[in-house]
Each structure stands twice: as C-alpha cells, then as structure tokens.
Design brief:
About 70% of the residues lie in helices and about 0% in strands. α3 packs parallel to α15, α5 packs antiparallel against α6 and α15 packs antiparallel against α19. The termini are far apart. The relative contact order is 0.15. The C terminus is likely disordered.
Length: about 475
C-alpha cells in the first residue's frame, strides 16, 4: 500500500497536541485528564487504522497493535515492580551524590533496560532531592542518561537493540560500542555535575542546612522486587512472544500464538502488586496509576498514527543519500519523534540491502552502518519526550512528585543545549571519516568540558557567602 506525504498529518497533529495542548490556557487543564488524552489519540489513530484495513494492509495495523501491546506490557510490569521498591533513608542531595546516582543508573540501564533503570531510580532520586527547589535539571538528565544513553551496551538495554538481536545481531556485539557509550555518558555526567553545582548554590541556606542535618542511613524496602525485576529481564531476553511473521506466512505452531513473554511479565507484576509491601508502595513511594495511564493513552495514538509515517519513510528511504553519518542522522532524527524501535528496524532492513564488508554476523549489514543506526536509535531517543518509552514515564512520575517539568518544546530546547552538542562531538570523532572532522569533534568536546568547568566554578555558595568564606 503506497502512501502520500499528507498521510503523516495525523501523526503531526498528535505531536502538536502533545507539544501545545499543555501550553494553551484553554486546553491545559483538560489535557491533564487521561480520558481526554485517550480521546484525542483515538480520534486521530482509529481513522488511520480503518484506512489501512480498508486499503488492504491489515497486517500493518495488526503489527502496530501487537507492538503497542508488547510495549505497554513491558512498561506496566516495570512500573508496578519498581513501584514496590523504596530506597529508605535520606542522603545529602549534593552534586556529587546526584551525579553518582545518575552514573549508577547509566551503568545498570544496559543490563535491566532503560525503562527498568529509570523506573527504579527516579523515585529515590526525587526523594533524595525533595528538600531542594531546583530539581528539573536532575529529571531531564535522568532521561538523557538513565532512560536512554546508558542502555547501549546490551540488547537488554533498549528495545531497538533487542529487535536487532532477534534479527541476527550477536548478543555480545553491542559490547563493542563501549567507547561511544563511555564518551557520551561521561560528557553528560560532567555537564550535569556542573549544572547541579550551579543550582545547588542557588538553594536557600535553610534548605541546604535541613538537607545536611536530616540524613538517615540508607536501606531498601521491598527487596523481593529485585528478584521480580530479574524475572522480567529474563523474560525479555529469553521468553518468546507472538510470532506475527510465522502467523502471516501460515506456518505458525501453537506456541507462536501465545505471548509467553508478556504473560510472564504481567504475572510477576500482579504478584508484586498484590503480595508486596503496601507501605513501601503506597505510603513511601506514593504509588499512583496516573503515569502509566498517561503513557498508555498517548502512545496508542502514536503507534496508530505512526503507521503511515513509517510506511512513507520506507518509500522515501531508497532515495536518501546513505553513509555512516547520514544513517546516524536519519535514524537518530526520526527516532526522536517516532518511537525508536520501529525506526531502527526500518533502517536496519534498508542497510541489509546495501551490502559491504565487514558484515555483522549473518545479518548482511555493513558493520559501520549498523554502528551508526544503533547509536542513532539509542542516543537520539532522548531528544524528545516521545523518542523512547521511559521518557514520558519519568516525566509523569516527576510531575506527580510536584516537579514542574518543561513542556514538550522546553524539553527539546534543553536537549539541544546539552545533549545534541555531545552527540555531534561523538559523531565527528567516532563515525565521520577524516582528520578534520576528528579535530572539530575534539574542539567541541573541549568546549563542552570548558562550559562545565566554568559553570561549576562561577558560583558562590550562599552559606559560604554568609560566613564570609570563599
């Protein structure tokens, strides 16, 4: 089924609703209601689905709905299980401690998934910083590092890489991306440390004294939920789900119809919810269903309206000038507004048609192309709230905790100030060919680090100022 450019208009309308509805006084209050978000999503998405069904491309709709179900099942399971874990105690919310928090999240994201790591850490991070006024930048960098850039090293880290593994990429291949992972995350952590030092200095002396003097020993409630998280990660890695390709080709066995992976994940979530520590979940974590309901409502619209957008992209793709840099640019740019998993698959299949040596295992894909596609899908999913599933989850949890998060456009602006320059430097050093591109990348890296140093050293702490010290 061929589509024209205007077929992407419902998707554009969905993006505009997400971006503008919270900013317009006449719609802001209504948009906060999940039923309104769901209504808008269905009004835009259902006609698209019916159009494709009537046009004879029912499989595209079925694929989208199955992928949506798998997507929500994973997010729901991780949301419920992580909601039963409470990091009790209160450490001082210093720039060093916050940076260590994010660094830890950036490491574990590759092994329990960006969604699992983000949901596990966002509540403790907010609890630790509850005495502080300036918290928005901490949540934004949690999305950058924990919910996205940390998940590069294994197929468990981010859905696009998992789909690559299902298509023949060896499990250990992504370990070879560690130089880019380390480069990007160290620059982001350095930038965050500088920003947090700057904002820490703006906190009132009373708030900082309260934070420093009301410290209690750390501990964990709901430890059994770590075992449940391990089961979910194991299910993602090992358990089968519905094999839509086998079903479409007419040779599906009985088990190809059974979503074993999702049944295991949701079963574990139910056990966690009904048998876990109720005080840890509902009193300490203040667990509410709002964040997952918001994600479910908005993303059904995204998955449905995205059908013609991805179809149009696949039609346009053969005409694109493709090399390592443009593969990163196109995959990354589109992953920031389309969900990064189907975008990865689109360019993965395209790269498989181009040939080149050396290839990655039996995929037939020229390795530099797959490196660029993988980096673009994982890293650039952080550029907007909708680029990767946990982004909106983190935002919703932060909103529920009283943090006034940036609007869609405000968040994108933050990404272009802090994240995009880091990614540009990474591309120039690790992907682009040529001495001059490497030199320019190193210059940009130096500028990013210099900006961080100047920001960290340009403040005077109010407590120190009051004491007459430096």
């Amino acid at each position: 089924m061929e589509v024209q450019w205007w077929s992407i208009l419902p998707f554009v309308a969905m993006l505009l609703c997400i971006a503008l509805a919270p900013l317009i006084p006449a719609t802001a209050e209504a948009w906060e209601k999940q039923r309104v978000q769901l209504l808008v999503a269905l009004v835009l998405g259902v006609p698209v689905a019916l159009w494709f069904i009537i046009g004879g491309d029912t499989s595209a709709v079925v694929h989208a709905l199955i992928e949506y179900g798998q997507f929500i099942a994973l997010l729901l399971a991780l949301f419920v299980v992580s909601g039963g874990i409470f990091l009790k105690g209160d450490i001082e919310a210093t720039p060093r401690n916050n940076t260590l928090f994010l660094a830890f999240g950036g490491v574990i994201a590759s092994f329990i998934g960006t969604t699992g790591a983000a949901m596990l850490l966002i509540r403790p991070l907010l609890n630790t910083n509850h005495e502080r006024k300036y918290r928005v930048h901490t949540v934004v960098f949690t999305i950058f590092i924990v919910a996205n850039c940390g998940g590069l090293l294994t197929p468990l880290g981010d859905p696009p890489l998992f789909l690559g593994m299902l298509r023949g990429v060896p499990f250990t291949w992504t370990f070879g991306l560690w130089p880019m992972w380390l480069f990007v995350n160290i620059l982001l952590l350095a930038t965050y440390f500088a920003l947090d030092s700057k904002y820490h200095a703006k906190e009132s002396p009373e708030a900082l004294r309260f934070d420093a003097t009301h410290r209690t020993k750390l501990g964990v409630k709901g430890k059994l939920n770590f075992a449940y998280l391990a089961v979910i990660v194991g299910a993602v890695a090992l358990a089968p789900s519905i094999d839509i390709h086998a079903i479409e080709e007419g040779h599906a066995a009985f088990m190809d119809w059974i979503p074993v992976r999702e049944i295991v994940m949701l079963g574990v979530a139910a056990i966690s919810y009904f048998t876990g520590d109720k005080i840890a979940r509902f009193t300490d974590n203040k667990f509410k269903w709002g964040p997952i309901l918001e994600v479910a409502a908005i993303f059904i619209g995204i998955f449905l309206t995205m059908i013609p957008a991805l179809k149009y992209l696949s039609q346009l793709a053969p005409k694109l000038p493709l090399n390592e840099v443009t593969f990163f640019t196109f995959t990354g740019g589109l992953s920031s507004v389309l969900d990064n998993a189907p975008t990865y698959v689109t360019f993965f299949e395209m790269a498989a048609q181009l040939g080149g040596e050396p290839t990655v295992a039996d995929t037939g894909i020229y390795e530099p192309y797959l490196i660029a596609i993988s980096l673009g899908a994982v890293f650039c999913g952080a550029i907007t709230y909708i680029g990767n599933g946990p982004n909106f989850m983190v935002k919703a949890v932060a909103d529920g905790a009283g943090v006034t998060m940036p609007s869609f456009g405000g968040y994108v602006a933050q990404a272009f100030i802090y994240l995009v320059p880091t990614l540009v430097a990474m591309v120039l050093i690790f992907i682009a060919d040529g001495l001059w591109t490497t030199i320019i990348g190193l210059v940009i890296t130096g500028a990013i680090l210099l900006r961080a140093v100047l920001a960290a050293r340009s403040h005077e702490h109010p407590v120190a100022a009051a004491d007459g010290s430096s």
